[in-house]
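Weekly modeling sync, notes
Attendees: S.R. (lead), two postdocs, one rotation student

Agenda item 3: backlog of single-chain predictions. S.R. asked that every request posted to the team notebook include the full sequence so nobody has to chase files. The rotation student volunteered to paste the first one in as an example of the format we agreed on. Action items at the bottom.

Example entry:
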Amino acid sequence: MEKTITTEVVFNGMLLTVLRDEVLLENGAMSIREHVLHPGAVAVVPITSDGKIILVEQYRYPIKQKLLEIPAGKFDKPGEDALECAKRELWEETGYTARKYTYLGYIYTTPGFSNEIIHLYLAQDLVPGDSNPDEDEILEVRIEDFDAVVKKCISGEITDAKTVAGVMRAYFKLRGEK
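Predicted structure, as returned to the notebook:
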C-alpha cells in the first residue's frame, strides 16, 4: 500500500478533478501520483428480441474520431443509483426503454491514472421511443446484428473499452442462458 502524505487539487472541472499527491511507497521511497477523480458511470448493452444490438456512434474529441459504442453516461450526482442511471442513459441516447435489466459487473477504465468505474448492464425486452440526448451530445443510433458486433470487438474494429467489455460480458451471459 502507498500512504498519501499531501494532496493538491490541480484542476477541478465539471466532469473531473485532477489531483497531485505525494506518497510514501512500501519501500520507504517518496513519489508523486497524479490522478483523476471521476464520478462513475454506466454502460448498457441493449439487445432486441431478434438478436440486434442498439449502438450509438459519436465523435470523441480527445481522439478526434467517431466511435461506435454502447449507450453510456456518467452519474449526475454522488450516490446516484447505477440502475436508474442506466435506464436514463439508454432512453436519452437511443429512445429505448427496457423491461429487463441484468447487471454484468463493473470495469475500471484506466486505473493507472483514474478511479473511473463503469457499471455494465444488459438490457432486454426493449420498447422503442424518442431519444432525448444531452445538448452537447450529437449521436447516431445504429442497430446491428449482435454476433457481428461481437466479431467487431474481437477483430479490433470496435476499440471503445466499455463497449468491448460490455458486449463480451453480454455475449457470454446470453450464451449461458441457452
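Discussion: group reviewed the output briefly. Residues 104 and 120 are 5 Å apart (CA to CA).
Action items: rotation student to repeat for the remaining queue; S.R. to check formatting next week.
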